[in-house]
Amino acid sequence: MNLKQTQQKTGRRKAGKKEKPSPQSPVSSPQSPNLDDWIEIGKIVAPQGLAGEIRVYPTTDFPERFEESGTRWLLRPGETAPQPIELLEGRYVEGKNLYIIQLAGVENRNQAEELRDCKLFVPISDRPQLGEDEYHVIDLIGIEVFLQESGELVGKVVDVIPAGHDLLEVQLTPHDNEQKPKKVLIPFVRAIAPVVDISSRRIEITPPVGLLEISQ
Description:
This protein is mainly β. The chain contains three helices and twelve strands. The protein has helices spanning 64-67, 109-113, 137-140, and strands spanning 38-48, 53-58, 70-75, 83-93, 98-103, 119-123, 144-147, 153-161, 167-172, 183-187, 195-197, 202-205. The strands form two sheets. The protein has a six-stranded antiparallel β-barrel with strand order 1-2-5-4-3-6. Strands 10-9-8-7-12-11 form a six-stranded mixed β-sheet, with no helix packed on it. It is elongated and about 60 Å long.
């Protein structure tokens, strides 16, 4: 599904394509000492054939991460600093949600096997540009959601679910005596989320009656 498309005539907002910061332990390198500076794009799962090609399970929806040649960053299991490696070429395998890639210096199956379970990264500064009314998922996670009319804090976005209209999964601000925070799904459309301010980390919503179930 191409989450990058917009349909502004219907007031549709798009969360952009999926790409999130790595959930792994902190990663550092001389160029980038903070985990927040990296985006995990895929995990190497197996060799492909005998000529050094590699199967990668993507954690990004941007095909250019694996189809366009250039530098990527490889993190081996047990290590804390990713190392640069050159992606030579890649292709998508229909129906399997896998990419087959060729990396520089990996020329046979044994060398490819040594990379099993390694992860691939790009710097967060390398995020592709989006169009108007499009947003990177990485920018929406953790953003606070408020009722536009009253200014009341509703909660924070914990996930974005792709659908006909993308859905914001919002963990509601807990109220007194609540043992477990509740979550609701909010359609990410302009009629319901008219204000999206990434710089201020704020979304304002005008939910229809019944969309939210907030204990008073």
